[in-house]
């Protein structure tokens, strides 16, 4: 059995009233209130607001995902703690402004989960497939959007999402009301069409047209991935890692020759790239 890592220890003064607060969530909430205290808190923490904390929240979420992707389980508790701290930060600022507090956040998500799981907390049957339960989930969410006055099929898809993720969500929403290709073939043809239009825009040299058509290519690529049952974000992450690994091999091969990429021609680097690619194929064989 792998021992649970001790993530509670760290440099601290010999005594502080914070240690009189029970450990866990009570101490974390008290810690944030202390950091934001106008008289006794940290100047940096006091200066922050909702907008300034958002980038840190996004960064911490990605760091959680990265630790999980690397199966770095000893890092996951710390990364999750960093992400939880962002929630506590927002809750503290909300409390200071008289808008909401941490308990309101917890109550909100608890009520939402109960509402969206009638097969667990209600009278609905649990004898459903996961796909059927996803359909139920989406119907409940649609009702929640209608209650907020969001009548359009695409209403409520957050503008702040990464563009790749938002494209996928927009496409899924449109597909639910019938605006979709009937099979992957149509999506593939559309991607080829958009690629040709991008090539034409590139020939004109018009930056605005190039950006517009490139966006269409990327959007169509996401659509094809969806039709093929692939997660475009996962596919791109895989391509990123493959590129990084192969380029590292190019650097290693050049280093063995006493050189670096700056000392090599594009043709020489391409030759090493192809050798690394062939080696990868041989490993898979």
From TrEMBL:
<feature type="domain" description="NTP pyrophosphohydrolase MazG-like">
    <location>
        <begin position="189"/>
        <end position="247"/>
    </location>
</feature>
<dbReference type="GO" id="GO:0046081">
    <property type="term" value="P:dUTP catabolic process"/>
</dbReference>
<dbReference type="GO" id="GO:0046047">
    <property type="term" value="P:TTP catabolic process"/>
</dbReference>
<dbReference type="GO" id="GO:0047693">
    <property type="term" value="F:ATP diphosphatase activity"/>
</dbReference>
<dbReference type="InterPro" id="IPR048011">
    <property type="entry name" value="NTP-PPase_MazG-like_C"/>
</dbReference>
<dbReference type="GO" id="GO:0006950">
    <property type="term" value="P:response to stress"/>
</dbReference>
<dbReference type="GO" id="GO:0006203">
    <property type="term" value="P:dGTP catabolic process"/>
</dbReference>
<dbReference type="InterPro" id="IPR004518">
    <property type="entry name" value="MazG-like_dom"/>
</dbReference>
<dbReference type="InterPro" id="IPR011551">
    <property type="entry name" value="NTP_PyrPHydrolase_MazG"/>
</dbReference>
<feature type="domain" description="NTP pyrophosphohydrolase MazG-like">
    <location>
        <begin position="48"/>
        <end position="121"/>
    </location>
</feature>
<protein>
    <recommendedName>
        <fullName>Nucleoside triphosphate pyrophosphohydrolase</fullName>
        <ecNumber>3.6.1.8</ecNumber>
    </recommendedName>
</protein>
<dbReference type="InterPro" id="IPR048015">
    <property type="entry name" value="NTP-PPase_MazG-like_N"/>
</dbReference>
<dbReference type="GO" id="GO:0046052">
    <property type="term" value="P:UTP catabolic process"/>
</dbReference>
<dbReference type="Pfam" id="PF03819">
    <property type="entry name" value="MazG"/>
</dbReference>
<comment type="similarity">
    <text>Belongs to the nucleoside triphosphate pyrophosphohydrolase family.</text>
</comment>
<dbReference type="GO" id="GO:0046061">
    <property type="term" value="P:dATP catabolic process"/>
</dbReference>
<dbReference type="GO" id="GO:0046076">
    <property type="term" value="P:dTTP catabolic process"/>
</dbReference>
<keyword id="KW-0378">Hydrolase</keyword>
């Amino acid at each position: 059995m792998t021992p649970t890592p001790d993530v509670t220890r760290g440099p601290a003064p010999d005594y502080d009233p914070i240690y009189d607060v029970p450990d866990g969530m009570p101490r974390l909430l008290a810690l944030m209130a202390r950091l934001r205290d106008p008289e006794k808190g940290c100047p940096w923490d006091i200066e922050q607001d909702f907008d300034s904390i958002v980038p840190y929240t996004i960064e911490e979420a990605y760091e959680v995902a990265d630790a999980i992707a690397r199966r770095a389980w000893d890092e996951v508790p710390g990364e999750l703690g960093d992400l939880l701290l962002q929630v506590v930060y927002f809750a503290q600022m909300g409390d200071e402004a008289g808008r909401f507090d941490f308990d309101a956040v917890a109550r909100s998500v608890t009520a939402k989960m109960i509402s969206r799981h009638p097969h667990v907390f209600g009278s609905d049957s649990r004898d459903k497939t996961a796909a059927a339960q996803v359909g139920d989930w989406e119907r409940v969410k649609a009702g929640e959007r209608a209650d907020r006055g969001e009548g359009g099929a695409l209403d409520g898809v957050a503008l702040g999402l990464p563009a790749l993720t938002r494209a996928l969500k927009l496409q899924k929403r449109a597909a639910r009301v019938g605006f979709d290709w009937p099979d992957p073939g149509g999506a593939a043809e559309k991607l080829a069409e958009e690629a040709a239009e991008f090539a034409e825009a590139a020939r004109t040299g018009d930056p605005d047209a190039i950006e517009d058509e490139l966006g269409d290519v990327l959007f169509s690529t996401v659509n094809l991935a969806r039709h093929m049952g692939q997660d475009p974000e996962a596919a791109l992450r895989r391509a990123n890692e493959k590129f990084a690994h192969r380029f590292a091999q190019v650097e290693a091969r050049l280093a063995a020759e006493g050189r670096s990429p700056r000392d090599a021609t594009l043709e020489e680097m391409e030759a090493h790239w192809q050798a690394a690619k062939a080696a990868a194929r041989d490993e898979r064989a």
